[in-house]
Amino acid sequence: MSVVLTWIVFLPMLSAGVLGLFRVRHTVLRAGAMLSALLVLALTLLTAVQFDPQAEGMQFVRHLPWIFQYGITYYLGLDALSLVILLVIALLMPLLYLYMWDNPTSGYWYNMLLLQTGVTGAVLSLDLVLFYLFYETMLLPIFIMIGRYGHDWNHAHAMKILLFTVLGSMAMLFAILYLGYAHYSFYGNWSFAWQDLAKLPLDPQTATWLAAGFLLAFAIKIPLLGFHTWMATAYASAPTPALVILSAIMAKLGIYGLWRFGYGIFAQVLHLYEPILLALSLVGMLYYAIHAITQKDLRKMFAYSSGSHLSLIALGVVLANLYAWSGSLYLIATHALASAGIFLMIGLIHQRTDTVQIDGLGGIASVAPRFAFFFTFFALSIVGVPGTGGFVAELLIIIGAFSVHPWLGAATATTMLAAMLFVFWMLQRTLFGAPVPSTVTFADLNRRETVMLAPLALLLVITGMAPSLFTPLFTPQIQAMLLQFVHAAGGAS
Amino acid sequence: MMATFAPLIPTTLVIVGAFVLLLISTVRSIHLQSYLTITVAFLLLAFAVALPQFGTQSGVYVLPDVFGHTYLADDFATLFDLMFLGGGVLTLLINAIYLRKRDYYNGEFFALFLFAIFGMMTLAHANDLVAAFISLELTSIAIYALTGYHKNYRGSNEAMLKYLVLGSFAGAMFILGTALFYGVAGTTVISELAIFIQHHGSEHLLALSTAGLLIMVTILFKIGAVPFHSWLLDVYLGAPFPVTMFMASVLKVALFAIALRLYLILYVDTGLVGNGVISLIAVLTLLGGSWLALSQSMLKRMLAGSSIVHGGYMLIALSSIGLGAHLAAPAIMFYLLSYFLSSVGAFGILSYIAADATRPLTYDDFKGMAHRRPYLSAMMAISMLSLSGFPSTIGFLGKFYIFMSAIEAGQIALAGLGIFIAFVSVYYYFKLIAMMYFYPCEEEGCERKPFEIHISTLLIGLMALLTIWGGIGTSLIPWFPGADGMISIAKQAIGSLP
Fold first, then answer.
1. Distance, in angstroms, between A473 CA and closest chain B CA?
2. Mind listing the pLDDT tens digit for each residue in B307-323?
């Protein structure tokens, strides 16, 4: 059973290798990619079923030596946190392939296959060098996809996202190296496994600097306010499937890193950064929301809205109590579903009308009612209308904020309400009114597109109506993680 | 009897090969292909003899009644011999197409090539400063001539003259340093010098430090460390491709061989001044090299600039040896190997493409390469990833070891700078990847060129595979060294030093 994670990570890459070796035709390629994605989904569901929420620590662990000299290991494992993200990735990939179904460019498909290996590997690695490897290599397919298949200054924007992200991960690499050396100088043997590094008795000053390296990497990836200048341009230039991965998965990996490694390794010094992170995410939420209102380009609009929600998730993580952490984890999943839905639909709009400028759209509801229904649904679930999963998650985070301090709760709640405004205005301008020339012949959703969007919508409703179906999966472990964190943080002070 | 001669056989084979080539180059009817075959045959034969010797020797003086203590056979030197021989074979075979399409390559070219390799091998074995100087000059003179081999190309002539004048001047420093050492210690044998410095180092600190630094200046000049780098870009650009590749990869390995041997006796536990100077030069080299590499549009010059930067990384590790990082010396060896694999790949592809070109290749020439030559583009991309130190390639592990040794030595700021420079290098390496993959095909020449099965292209492919294998390879295949095995080999070689 312990090899299942290895299969989940490497099956897409293996498929890409085999399909590439035989230089298969488009029809075979897409079937093969879809097959691998479905297999990964099946394996993931299998792990989810066998996953024991009550058990402590990592499950399905695979721990093999890799480079003896420096104690670097091939170390995969899974807990509730990674399981949620893994489920999201596995679920989204087949839907993305459905979106790409008629796209004959084979490079597109290979990049997507490699990308899946990259992101799943990053979520499942517990050895920091292995994590760094996946964290960095998953950038390559994105770089190529934006540069090759993107639009609007995509070459410059591809370089921009690459350089920003690499700068962050280089800072993290430095911290990783130092941690490994610290382990060696304390215990006389090398190790990069995260639970070993978490136990290091670092002096606070060093730990503060090292934490900064990690936080820089994750702040750029999320992106927090001030580290975000690559975001809107990359989102606007990326082709739709890459865009979905960027917003729904890669940004969440920043949160995941903050959570797993920030809170896992640097528990004792993180309180120094908490005010900064809190301020950045609170102000960021509002700032991104205001930006979203002013955008004329749908992609950029939802890029900023995505930034706003990721700031909210980061806020939940920083609040560090049971409500907030549960809410953040829930929002990671539901926001991924909703933003995947909306970005896919924006992609459809682009295919149909050749524009994503709000000025060029209008009256879609009157010519394509099914399209308008789904579009409204996803837009509303992004902002967390009651009845969708986002609402539950945001509510939990707000409760978490209130339990820290009433003012903090109030601030979170009001900024969130403000963040909703843009959506209604946008819907009014794109969907309603009389059709404009570009939307007169707007085709409604066909069967493939409906199949692609329905699971997302269905899941959003289920997560919204019956959160009790999902919470038992992660609550015990979140509680345990929280206890561990409080213990580690308290031990220092 | 045989056992005493055995360590000499590979070196002898190479020099005999050189003379054989010189003799037969007077015969007009022999074709380039035959010269190539003979040269490669001699190199491979020497390689085959040297390979089993690795792991058996720990510091034996060869024929002490003839050479005294000048010629030392140890695993350290044997590993370097293997790298020179293998590197020579790869350089020649990868450039086979380039050589074939030019009419000015003849027997002397290959003879000079073998003389250069002979000089490098004796340099790695030298346990005497005078012997080291002679070896170094032998290599240098052969390479001066090779640099100017493109007789009718003014750039090539310019490069040769520049290299000759500056290189000879720098070489003089080495002999001056040697003289100072002799004046103080009364010996030029490196291992005896080491003992002298251990015991009486503090009494003659100024003279010994000056002598050590003078010798280091020569080595730093040849490596192309800033501020001794001004010749490097023009020489790399002007030299014929096989020679540039040879200088960037094999010659650099040879220089670090002597640098390591000298460094380990001069600056480890001796109190000689100079370790700080090396750190400072590492900083200058990293910054200056990056600046040069960033501002180039010709690929050959970019690779030349970046080779300065790679020298800078190794200087980081070199300066860390003196501060007690016990894995720094193997880290340099591993880095040399990783840089060798990736740069031979990159230069090889350039030379393959430049075989038909009439002017130096620029970034723009690679626009849309991925459509025309998908396999070569993929290999080039792998080389670039490795050179920039992207994880899952051998270049990443090389940098990993280097920075680790700097942290271990307490040079935190230097490690931080190195990582930042690696970030900067992402830009100029990825620019080439972007050129190859981002652009659609232009109108002319858009049709896909078939992958030519030839020894050159196959070897380039092998380099790309090894680059990946060195980055992720595990010990799953018992007889083939993976990422882990390579560093063990390097450690064993360093362990054989006194």
1. 34
2. 999 999 999 999 988 88
